[in-house]
Write a structure and sequence with these properties.
By secondary structure, this protein is mainly α. Helix content is about 50%, strand content about 5%. It contains 14 helices and seven strands. The chain has helices at about 1-10, 15-35, 50, 70-75, 85-90, 95-100, 140-160, 180-195, 200-215, 220-225, 230-235, 235-240, 245-260, 275-280; strands at about 105-110, 115, 120, 125, 135-140, 170, 175. It has a three-stranded antiparallel β-sheet. A two-stranded antiparallel sheet has the order 3-4. A two-stranded antiparallel sheet has the order 6-7. A hairpin with a 2-residue loop joins strand 6 (about 170) and strand 7 (about 175). The longest helix has 20 residues, at about 15-35. It is elongated. Mean pLDDT is about 80; it is low at about 245-295.
Length: about 300
């Protein structure tokens, strides 16, 4: 069309996209007025720039999960007040907003799990998660010990100070810990550990990678992370495709069990751990001295 040729001519002459857009905005506005007055059937300028300046598909940067050694470094170099937050992220794989939205009524000390049911973003506590579904995540006794100490300190703060958020698990200066404060602490610990900057969301990928590489059922991993199975398969396809021999062995085992007409049962708990043991913790136990004796 004439308009396309005009825009393409400007582009060939070296005019930038903002310059061409500015010129076209006048033409587009005039044609829109003509359309509204029924002078022309449509705004012929609409959509022209999309074809002249198509959006470039940005190459998705591959996320590099943290190694065991890097996790140890981070936990060892974390400040005492930051350590519990990092520890929970690395051992549960929850989204940052979900962890910051954690309340004490969502921590079950008796049965050893937390309930992910809220999210905290931009200073707003939402009574639902990103997916709109609650989920239970088992945690180890070591993690519960850290939470017990944290709660004891929190209770002492409530007695000494006024205006302390009594519900939030993670607080700073009496208020629920916000994402900006967390990011500052995250940047600080990465610098101290001598590690290149990676987004905190990489922690979630680290947990997912560990669980999948250990061969845990995709459905259960998806439940822990709060994903649908399809989303998990799409997001972590590079991990699932990394070990073809392991996949073939798993498939052969499933097929053989199906032929026998029986469900494959593990010989011991280590071969196929329960959901409570699936959360990675072997390398994530207390990496720094931490007083796990609750104050009386």
């Amino acid at each position: 069309s004439v308009l396309y040729d005009y825009a393409m001519g400007l582009k060939r002459k070296g005019h930038s996209k903002p310059d061409v857009s500015l010129r076209f905005s006048v033409i587009k506005a005039g044609m829109e007025q003509a359309r509204l007055r029924d002078k022309i059937p449509a705004n012929y300028a609409a959509g022209v720039l999309v074809t002249v300046f198509p959006k470039r598909k940005e190459k998705k940067q591959e996320i590099k999960p943290f190694t065991d050694q890097e996790v140890d470094l981070i936990l060892s170099n974390a400040r005492p007040q930051d350590y519990p937050v990092f520890l929970l992220l690395f051992t549960t794989g929850v989204r940052l907003g979900e962890l910051l939205g954690l309340n004490w009524d969502s921590v079950n000390f008796n049965d050893g799990y937390i309930v992910v049911q809220r999210s905290f973003r931009a200073g707003v506590l939402s009574e639902t998660t990103k997916t709109g579904k609650d989920r239970e995540i088992p945690v180890s006794e070591e993690i519960l010990d850290v939470l017990r100490v944290l709660r004891a300190k929190h209770n002492r703060s409530i007695l000494r100070l006024t205006g302390v958020d009594a519900d939030a698990v993670f607080v700073q200066h009496g208020a629920r810990l916000c994402q900006n404060s967390f990011r500052n602490a995250w940047k600080r610990v990465l610098r101290k550990s001598g590690l290149e900057y990676r987004k905190a969301h990489t922690i979630r990928h680290t947990v997912a990678s560990r669980l999948l590489n250990e061969g845990h059922p995709v459905k259960l991993v998806a439940e822990i992370l709060g994903h649908t199975v399809q989303t998990l398969l799409t997001t972590y396809s590079h991990i699932l495709e990394s070990d073809e021999d392991k996949k073939r062995a798993m498939l052969r085992g499933i097929q053989n069990a199906a032929r026998r007409g029986e469900q494959k049962r593990p010989e011991n708990s280590e071969e196929f751990p329960s959901l409570a043991n699936m959360v990675p913790k072997a390398r994530f136990e207390l990496a720094r001295p931490w007083d796990t004796t609750p104050s009386r």
